[in-house]
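Hi V.,

Quick status before I head out on leave. The structure for the redesign project is tokenized and pasted below; the design run finished overnight.
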């Protein structure tokens, strides 16, 4: 079993047979109903009647059986489904399970589940099938989180991030770190438990610190992948910034191919920000249309500008939009505003159908380092080049995910930071000559933080947070 904790869920509920619709709700040609739990086969069999065979014959596992589904109380045939049995531990949940493939009529689905509830099944909770798989040792906690992300994936990069987890790559990386920590703890334990033995008294602390240093370096390397993992899992955050009427809302609508934002010649139309997801050639982006950056006495607009800068600081890509008919002063003011806030950006010249203002042209020549992308949303001039630029930006992050182990979960990031903090306390204690027992305590803290990522140690509140976001049938 992966989890070493006392769980009311596992003790009270895990032995109960459960049922849920495992396919999408609504009208469809085929639906899948899943059952799992001890005695679930015995509860299901009275509802099944073989077509042309004797019911007493064995129902082999992993075969599709064509049969009648009947109401045991009335004998009425509800449907003619295919049924597949799985015996534990050779099943998704690790328990006895079965799947029923029936016609996708809402009436048939609801009636079938109602019959199974009368048979002794109870409705499955959100994520309960995957939670049972975790509790039965069929997968670690990070892989279970990967299943959730895999179901929600709408782009190639989200699929990559989810596959990182479901494939066990992160688990393998954490196991390597845990083994190194166990080795370091073993050296310390030898010094603590057998201080008078010649072999253990000769153990030098540098043997421990060298192992801990390698673990600390590896944790830093994992933490450095978090931004790439976030882009893969949640999409590239792109902030559209610039003065009022710079074309931010128009560009947002163009990229979305719909009129999502209000476009008006009146300055300050966008007071707050709009966020929309966008797929470009399978890459997921999160577009942020922000309030125009300018000096204003309006408190509401000032708050919008403040939020715009805050969002830009958190974005992976900032596009500074400058209309071609703007004077050079506008360009300088916008650049100074972003540079003062410590925000890197890509310059985009908008309204490409208008003539280039002479003073702006001169400033652009002087600021050769800010190579601009020119666009016009009217005829979509340059839009293809801008899309290609954003796609390349996404791919730059996603390459990290494709090339090795990557973290994309806030929970994993926090656990790694807790482990690293414990290791830093270890180094600080070692520097002042602390007792071996104190050093061992800090290593234990770091190990437990690493264990929590894969569920070796997991509290009920962590499990609840992970599995409550699953769909019911998974």
């Amino acid at each position: 079993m992966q989890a070493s904790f006392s769980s009311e869920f596992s003790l009270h509920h895990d032995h109960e047979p459960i049922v849920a619709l495992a396919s999408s709700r609504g009208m469809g040609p085929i639906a899948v109903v899943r059952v799992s739990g001890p005695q679930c086969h015995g509860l299901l069999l009275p509802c099944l009647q073989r077509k042309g065979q004797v019911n007493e014959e064995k129902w082999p596992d992993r075969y599709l059986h064509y049969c009648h589904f009947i109401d045991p109380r009335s004998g009425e045939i509800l449907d003619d489904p295919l049924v597949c049995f799985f015996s534990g531990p050779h099943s998704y949940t690790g328990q006895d399970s079965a799947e029923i493939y029936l016609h996708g009529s809402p009436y048939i689905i609801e009636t079938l589940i109602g019959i199974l509830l009368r048979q002794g099944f109870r409705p499955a909770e959100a994520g309960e099938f995957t939670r049972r798989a975790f509790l039965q040792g069929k997968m670690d906690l990070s892989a279970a989180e990967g299943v959730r992300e895999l179901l929600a994936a709408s782009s190639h990069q989200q699929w990559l991030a989810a596959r990182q987890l479901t494939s066990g790559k992160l688990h393998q990386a954490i196991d390597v770190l845990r083994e190194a920590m166990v080795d370091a703890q073993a050296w310390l334990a030898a010094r603590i438990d057998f201080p008078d033995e010649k072999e253990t008294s000769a153990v030098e602390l540098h043997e421990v610190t060298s192992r801990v240093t390698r673990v600390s370096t590896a944790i830093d390397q994992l933490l450095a992948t978090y931004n790439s993992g976030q882009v893969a899992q949640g999409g590239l955050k792109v902030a559209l910034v610039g003065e009022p009427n710079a074309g931010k809302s128009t560009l947002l609508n163009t990229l979305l191919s719909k009129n999502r934002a209000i476009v008006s010649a009146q300055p300050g139309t966008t007071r707050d920000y709009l966020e929309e997801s966008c797929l470009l050639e399978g890459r997921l982006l999160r577009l942020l249309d922000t309030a125009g950056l300018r000096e204003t006495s309006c408190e509401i607009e000032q708050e919008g500008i403040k939020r715009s800068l805050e969002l830009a600081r958190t974005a992976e890509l900032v596009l500074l939009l400058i209309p071609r008919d703007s004077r050079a002063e506008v360009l300088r003011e916008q650049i100074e505003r972003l540079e003062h806030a410590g925000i890197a950006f890509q310059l985009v010249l908008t309204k490409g159908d208008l003539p280039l203002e002479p003073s702006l042209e001169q400033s652009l020549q002087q600021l050769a380092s800010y190579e601009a992308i020119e666009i016009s949303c009217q005829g979509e001039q340059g839009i293809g080049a801008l899309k290609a630029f954003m796609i390349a930006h996404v791919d730059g992050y996603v390459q990290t995910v494709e090339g090795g182990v990557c973290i994309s979960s806030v929970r994993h990031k926090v656990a790694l930071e807790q482990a690293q903090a414990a290791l830093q306390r270890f180094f600080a204690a070692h520097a002042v000559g602390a007792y071996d027992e104190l050093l061992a305590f800090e290593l234990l803290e770091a190990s437990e933080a690493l264990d929590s990522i894969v569920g070796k140690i997991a509290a009920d509140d962590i499990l609840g947070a992970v599995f409550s976001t699953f769909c019911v049938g998974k």
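Above is the designed sequence. The chain has a mean pLDDT of 84.

G. will cover questions while I'm gone.

Best,
W.
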